[in-house]
Amino acid sequence: MPYCQSCGKEIASSASFCPYCGNQTGLAQQSTVPPQPSMPPSSGSSLLELNDIVMKKKILSMREHYDFEDTQGNKFGEGDGNFFQFPAKFQVLDNSKTLLFSLEGKLISIRRQFNFFDAQGNPLGQIKKKLMKLIGQEYWVEQNGVESLRIHGNFVEHDYLFEVNKEPVAQVHKKWIAIRDSFGISITGDIDRRLVLGSVIAIEHEEVSEKNKHSGPF
Less Cβ crowding at N or C end of the chain, within 10 Å? Predict the structure, then answer.
């Protein structure tokens, strides 16, 4: 079994992203086995390996809290932030309370924005909201100043798509969710799950938790 060059942990030989630190492994490019057309199974051993995730929102006093579970109800991690912290900050942890990544709102910005950081504090990217759009609403994720993800749909109703070069890679939906304040995240493409989960938290904070407040930075 190979080891991740970023964190040093043992990983699967077919992994494109490390399930522990989320960094690209480069193994997919090195492999001599041709890629298979079928998608990997939905189950995984860590939050960053899951393809189908149930995100449950909880209001705990002054905190904004989310639990991440698989479709069988097993908890794989959580996201936690403070309603009254300005700018807003969140941490996403696994079940052992190990930091997977964090989000931090930008204090002064023309566009609403959240910055993403890995467990070591290195920047992963940032999500921004398009200020003016004739039909619907839109966000995008940038990495090193270059757009990597486009996100569009009905954010308040938890029905929106993540696209890379106009190809869907993830979806937020209520398809198989019946519990109030819960919704599904389905990842169908080869994408860093930290960017997807971080974007969902940022959008939820902006579009739902803050919907009754005046327009302003995160």
Answer: N
